[in-house]
Amino acid sequence: MSGVQNVRQNALQNGLQNALGFVLRTRGRRRLHWTDVATYAYLMVGLFTLFAPVLWLVLSSFKTESAIGQFPPTLLPYSQKTALVAGHDQPLPLYRVTTPSGETREMAQVSRIGIMATMVDPARPEDTLKVNIRQRVPVQELTFAWTNYSDLFGKFTFGTYLWNSVFITVVATLLTLLFNSMAAFALSKYRFTGQKAVYLLIIGTLMIPPTIILVPVFLVINQVGLLNNLWGVILPAVATPTGVFLLRQYMLTIPDELIEAARMDHASEWRIYWRIVLPLSAPALAVLAIFSVMWRWNDFLLPLIVLSRNEQFTLQLALNAFQGELNTQWHYLLAMTVITLLPVTLVFAFLQRHITTGIASAGVK
């Protein structure tokens, strides 16, 4: 057992060394060539462009409501420090005040009228001072507002929105994999009249924008009684031409001899599909699963026209409804956005190794 572990550790170390050597390799032998400098600069700019907004979003989701509205904005979740002062029910904000004598003191602001603020020493509440607002600087401290996330489940029906999105995404993805793989199996391994015409008809639907068929889809959903029903969001999108094309191209690489051998062993067509074709198509199914999760999880337009009740809203609809006309609680909105991004990120992180294999194999016949 230890020998197997040593082999795995050595393989992992060799892989890391090869990857590190590939990333750090340079054109110049002894020193960096100007093309190396340009390449690394280009990669750093691209890395910053891609991840800076996400980093800003995550850090801002831990800011308090007052910290989000302060100017100039800060990257880290700094918030103004407060102190309890005798004679005041609520904590007062702290400032570093420059007194007329030039001394710097840490005082709490009691009130402000125009450009003049009344300050008080927290240790000596009877000691008050009126200063110009330009003579005081807020005292800030690094504070992570975890209540932004906990309040989502306490003050709002966030759990309902999350469950609706998870239910739609999981069920729609499973049905998409099932129906698309069945269609791809028929188009890749069966020979029948009109096979190419059916395939071209399916691929031709890619040229139709989804907004063109939005009204007919709504009328059909209304006629079958699926308005304000999660199934009204799931069923219209279970069959996708992209999924059929991707899986058909991959299944063409599966040898027909395997299927013929299974038929000689009296295996049914369903068993051939379920026990042979699907397992061999796992890389392509993983790619389609990633695409389907992203499509369903981020879908906004179809749920918008199908669902009108608050208890049926998905996370995307909840984010839209959370923005009020007069007031928007940005700290809760940013926290909800971060939670919305997590499932897609996790799915991509665990299944991304199948993307290259699946897409590359789908283009080979």
For the termini, the CA-CA separation is: 41 Å
CATH topology label of the largest domain: MetI-like fold
Whole-number radius of gyration? Answer: 30 Å
Number of helices: 16
How would a crystallographer describe the biggest sheet?
6 strands, antiparallel
Helix content: 55-70%
Which word captures the global form? elongated
User: How are helices and strands ordered from N to C?
Assistant: HHHEEEEEEEEHHHHHHHHHHHHH
- Oligomeric status: single chain
Strand content: 5-15%
* Category from helices, strands and their pairing: alpha+beta
Mean pLDDT, nearest integer?
82
Low-confidence stretches: none
Question: What is the β-strand count?
Answer: 8
Known CATH architecture of the largest domain: Orthogonal Bundle
CATH class of the largest domain: Mainly Alpha
CATH superfamily of the largest domain: MetI-like
Structural domain tally:
3
Task: Characterise the protein shown here.
The chain folds into three domains: 59 residues, no CATH class; 57 residues; 214 residues, MetI-like fold, CATH 1.10.3720.10. Helices cover 58% and strands 10% of the residues. The protein contains 16 helices and eight strands. Strand 5 and strand 6 form a beta hairpin. With 365 residues, it is of the alpha+beta class. Strands 2, 3, 4, 5, 6 and 7 form a six-stranded antiparallel sheet that branches. A two-stranded antiparallel ribbon has the order 1-8. The model has no long low-confidence stretch (mean pLDDT 82). The protein starts with a helix and ends with a helix. It comes from Sphaerotilus mobilis. It is a multi-pass membrane protein. One of its GO terms (biological process) is transmembrane transport. Keywords: Cell membrane, Membrane, Transmembrane, Transmembrane helix, Transport. It is found in: Cell membrane.
